[in-house]
Amino acid sequence: MKIITVRDLRNRPGAVQEDLAAEGEVILTSNGRPVAIILSVDGSTLDETLQAVRLARARVALRKVRRDARTRGLDRLTPEQIDAMIRDARQHKRGRTKDGSV
Hints:
- With 102 residues, the chain is an alpha+beta fold.
- The protein has helices at 6-11, 13-23, 46-72, 79-93; strands at 2-5, 25-30, 33-39.
């Protein structure tokens, strides 16, 4: 996959567009760090491509949440324990303790 810099994009947009047409996707970097992936699309595939990217992002986020839950031992909670944690968090958010005091 081709890697381009923000400077390249700013100074040589035509060349970047050619790279994108040839490669289909390029990684955009700033100060040596990846900041974006630019994908080639056309009017007929834009919605499908956007939906696929959003789905992929959601799957990555879900894997991260599951991995974090396993690390913290939260993957073994019962439904009742989960409900209690949610209830406690909601009460805390409202500024109340379990006994109803503020």
